[in-house]
Batch of 2 targets.
Target 1
Amino acid sequence: MPRPWWEDAVFYQIYPRSFRDSNGDGIGDLAGITEKLDYLAWLGVDALWISPFFPSPMKDFGYDVADYRGVDPMFGSLDDFERLAAGAKARGIRIVLDLVANHSSDQHPWFVEARSSRLSPKHSWYLWTQDTGKPPNNWKAIFELGSAWFPNPATGERYLGTFTRWQPEFDWRNPEVRRAFYDIMRFWYGLGVDGFRLDVATAYLKDARLRSNPFSWRANPDFFQKHLYDRNQPGVHEIFAEMRKVADEAPGVGRRPSLPGERVLIGETHGQDAELAASCHGKRADELHMAFNFDFLNQRWKAKAFKTSAERWYSLMPIGAWPNFTLSNHDRPRHIWRYRARDPETTESRAKVAAAMLLTLRGTPFLYYGEEIGMGCFRLPRKALRDPLGVKTWPLGYLGRDSERTPMQWDSTPGAGFGSEEPWLPLNPDWRERSASAQRGRSSSLLEWYRALIALRRAVPALRGGSLRWTPASRDVLAFERADEAAGERVAVFLNFASRAGHAALAEEAAVLLGSARKEGRALAAGDCALGPNEVLIARLKPPLKPRPEPRQL
Ligand code: NOJ
Ligand code: CA
């Protein structure tokens, strides 16, 4: 069976408010993404995950949806979406939408109806408890830093909101809710979307007895609770299996029937341990195609730390499941900032090592817009903050999420080519020096490095589907071999995480495929290979000599 497309793909997450503003109102939009498709095709990415652009009061910037089948006017229209989808398709780029199905906006007509009366047909679509004057348990609204239960005087009850009070949670035990969401998925499949990223997928179901969570020492992202009861309920697997069926049965792109695996489901397994995330693939790999493992986002800048994390993730994969890796997204400070060194050159070199790791490990890589040009984080002034969590936790820096959501830095014209001089969030102060146009065509730039890595991954099957074996190296070096036995192809990857020399063992003679310090094609001798500080070396191992055919017996 051919490999499904998403196992071979490089994904690129777009936060639409911040990518490109086509009409100068300060907010990125769908037409803006369409304008940048040529750039994305040039970069070489295969699929876009677009954060929500549906009608929304924007209390959580689109993660509070008021209509699951439309486009918020600030982002454009359904026609704009269809133009974007057609443009992407023409360039061979797939589109994955962000389905926020754990909760809606409190302005969604379903909730407006539900909260009006206990007798309303939509009442049972959401989660309620009798309002006795205090919350029924210790569950927290994580962007409010308080109880997750909010009073609804009209019915004398409280409703649940794990994020903000503006994001009431559905009761996924109700079959009508399930049907409604499966129809929404079919609607978008019908428009040609290639799959969904499922927002907080592991929170769809809550403990039926509403028990309080036990204490945990982990502050971030757990808020000092072990989420035994407000997430991670075993029944969620049934929902994943149902969603998988809907995906597999969706009509094929064009007129032909869908091929299994043509549509992809990627679960956000919120604040989870890797083991729980891995279980979302299903015991027989018949649930989510991929579950985000956020363990990399919590690692220190140490080769050993990433090795241990990846090793564990691989060992947890059920047979038939496929891993994925990510270093940055719209909820956490960007990794170039997390892994910054004292001097900017080392920071830049580390970003190159990180990119090489993400794009050569066995598993689908997810990039976050702007990481390819090394966009970083900075402290925004109080009055510029927009994220509810950031506003709530100010003046504690970097707990809010605005800093990783600033406008994409396209060029050095006023407004950084984002499209307006007054964007919804301020530009990172380094925008004049750090932009896509300043880096494009400059061979030593981070942008060209990403592009070369993506191209290499596309050109070398072993880097996509090949097996992975860790190989011997000095302490700061992450070294592994990717092998495609059928094609007889083996690739060695050496990543030096330290600013001092290191070394790794080359099993065979090799030739450089891509290196931060060596030219493509250069020959490397078998044996001990010395590496410079923060060096990346990717090399094709010489195929073992084929046994000579026996002379024919006459
Ligand atoms: C996870 C999303 O990634 C985050 O941005 C959002 O605020 C919450 N889910 C709530 O939808
Ligand atoms: Ca706009």
Note: Residues 21-23, 25, 27, 29 surround calcium ion (ligand 2) (CB under 6 Å).
Target 2
Amino acid sequence: MIKIFITFVTLTTTCSFAPLQLQAQNQSQSPIPSLKETFKNDFLIGTALNTAQIQEKDPAAAQLIPLQFNAATPENIMKAAIIHPGWDHYNFTLADQLVAYGQKNKIKITAHTLIWHSQLPDFVRSIKSPDSLRQFFTNHISTLASRYDGKVFSWDVVNEALEENGSLRKSIFLQLLGEDYIVEAFRLAQKAAPHTELYYNDYNIEQPKKRAGAVEIIKKIKAAGVRIDGVGIQGHWRASHIPLAEIEQSILDFSALGVKVMFTELDLSVLPNPWDRDNADVSATAGNSTGKDPYPNGLPDSVQNVLTKGYEDLFKLFLKHKDKISRITFWGVNDGQSWLNDFPIRGRTNYPTLFDRAYKAKPAFYAVIATKK
Ligand code: G3I
């Protein structure tokens, strides 16, 4: 009878998409390995957190996150539009909850983000005068960086200041404050947050031209005698086109500048994208999903294997350079939470993380763990 039952379980598991051995591990009742424990001597392992997760509203997430992660970044709640919606109006409640959550669960928080052209409050978008923008800029950085100094581990001080060709993005900050705004942002953050690590964070900065722009930014901050502790390569890539050689070169180039290197928003899309290139520019949407959502009910083996191999290759590379890398953060705990279900096309079914929609570890999770064996 037992033998028949085992045969039945084996048959049912082989009918789904994951390779048999990985699927069997995944189905077992025993606890899964821990990412943070597995890589504890290598780098921090982080995740983005949304409001429900910070408030522990979902029991499965509340249980899984502290077991798997020792670092976290608020996905949205510390962006200017949310935390600073009016000149003299700040909403600290969620960020304070995040700090308490981090303290309770021994999770290091990277606050995200002080100066970003996107998700600005309406009152900032309508500013036309350099003096007014500088006032916002100074108040915003000083207020937030000082409030959370010693409570968060680090800040993404400036986010996504570069165009793809390596020139500075023509943001409201560049246009009204001039190109020194980046150094000034770090200077203000350094003054307000002497106990907090300070980072520059961007996507596609592993690519040569944009990387050169990021190198210039870091050199300029350092040349001004201002502190920058690290650089975050976001890591929004397509599973089938991970630029491993450029990533490796970036690790070498950035670490040669004497800053920590981090992968700060890692996710691997498995869905077709209309531009045929990596893009994390949230303003670049491409309509709704009609006819463009190929895997609404699960990934075929072939695609699951590409995703798994992609994560495996990345973690092998990360381990090779673990002396230069301080943190790997996934942009979302599970597939259901990922922004990539709505970008660049709304309403699709993407599979970019290590955990499925029920928070169950995917084959990619076990492949990542296995890179340590
Ligand atoms: O909170 C509102 C909700 O009240 C409203 O009903 C709903 C309607 O659309 O929108 C909600 O806000 C959304 C927010 O996510 C929270 O879900 C915004 O529209 C949406 O634009 C926002 O998207 C976030 C995006 O940044 C823009 O801020 C994504 O969740 C977040 O994953 C993404 O993260 C960025 C990093 O910060 C920087 N690097 C790129 C990365 C991916 O775009």
Note: Residues 165 and 358 are 40 Å apart (CA to CA).
